[in-house]
UniProtKB/TrEMBL annotation:
InterPro entries associated with the record: BP-dep_ABC_trans_perm, MetI-like, MetI-like_sf
Protein name (database record): ABC transmembrane type-1 domain-containing protein
Keywords: Cell membrane, Membrane, Transmembrane, Transmembrane helix, Transport
Bilayer topology annotation: Multi-pass membrane protein
UniProt lineage: Bacteria, Pseudomonadati, Pseudomonadota, Alphaproteobacteria, Acetobacterales
Annotated PANTHER family: INNER MEMBRANE ABC TRANSPORTER PERMEASE PROTEIN YCJP, MALTOSE TRANSPORT SYSTEM PERMEASE-RELATED
The organism of origin for this protein: Falsiroseomonas bella
Residue ranges of the TM segments: 12-30, 73-95, 107-131, 137-156, 185-206, 240-261
Start and end residues of each ABC transmembrane type-1 domain: 69-261
GO terms under cellular component: plasma membrane
Family named by the database record: Belongs to the binding-protein-dependent transport system permease family.
Biological process, per Gene Ontology: transmembrane transport
């Protein structure tokens, strides 16, 4: 009986936390389909008297939202591909090869991740101006790589440490080249870790705000995080209906990706606990 009561109490506590956490998201979705006159009604109403999608129509056809969406997709995809490619090769090097300073290099990578990202803004901005890529998506790809790569490298290093050396050695004995063994043996075994790392990197790039705010000030290169705020918020007014609709639209790609890849994300968390 005591065990049953404990389980019931735990479930009630867990569901309370879930409801408290999910309530802002539910309110965001409901607000995005409320008519304008219901938004500031006192007392406020939870369910709309009538559902309307006029805010979504205005967002898509009367604002540059689709341009910002395209920029965010290009930026997050390019950053993810670059970071995961470099991190996969780097992690394999740190795990499989023996050379002087290997462990110190791994520690320096982790130390780089621990640094506050705001410290790098000014040096990165000056570097972007110097190489002539300021105010462009390329500048954001480079900037996002600086703080996403150390974490991705450390996570994949931990994951690859769990892959037995015997698998790669057996492939080498059978006549495979080093790169052949890497592509045929290591990559399939590391695929869950690579996918979870890709998901982490994509979410990090999709939601990043500070670098995008400082490094880009033209609409042609703005991602969603800064573009939506610049588009809908003025000094004296916030268009809450459009802001909620934009927030829902911004969340959809992440929800879809997470729904399909969540099992790999869980494996990636487990891989991060492997000690080297």
């Amino acid at each position: 009986m005591k065990r049953i009561l404990g389980r019931v109490a735990f479930n009630l506590f867990a569901w309370t936390i879930v409801l408290v956490t999910a309530f802002p998201l539910v309110w965001m979705v409901i607000t995005s389909v409320k008519p304008q006159f219901e938004l500031f009604r006192i007392p406020p109403t939870f369910w709309p008297e009538q559902i309307t999608f006029e805010h979504y129509a205005r967002l898509l056809w009367e604002t540059p939202f689709l341009l910002y969406m395209r920029n965010s997709l290009l930026l997050s995809t390019a950053t993810t591909l670059l970071v995961v490619t470099v991190a996969t090769l780097g992690a394999h090097s740190l795990v499989r090869f023996r050379y002087r300073g290997r462990e110190r290099l791994a520690q320096l990578v982790l130390f780089t991740y621990l640094l506050p990202s705001v410290v790098l803004i000014l040096p990165l901005y000056l570097m972007m101006v110097w190489i002539g890529v300021a105010n462009s998506l390329l500048s954001l790809v480079i900037a996002y790589t600086t703080f996403a790569l150390p974490y991705a490298l450390w996570l994949l290093r931990s994951f690859m440490q769990g892959i037995p050396d015997d698998l790669e050695n057996a492939a080498l004995v059978d006549g495979a080249t080093r790169m052949g063994a890497f592509f045929d043996v290591i990559l399939p075994q590391a695929l869950p870790g690579i996918i979870s790392t890709s998901l982490f990197t994509f979410i990090l790039s999709w939601n990043e705000y500070l670098y995008a705010l400082v490094l880009v000030n033209t609409d042609e290169a703005r991602p969603l995080t800064t573009g939506v705020m610049n588009m809908l918020i003025s000094a004296f007014n916030i268009e809450w209906s459009l802001l909620m609709a934009a927030s829902v639209m911004m969340s959809i790609p992440l929800i879809v990706i997470f729904a399909f890849l969540q099992k790999f994300l869980t494996r990636g968390f487990g891989a991060g606990g492997v000690k080297g």
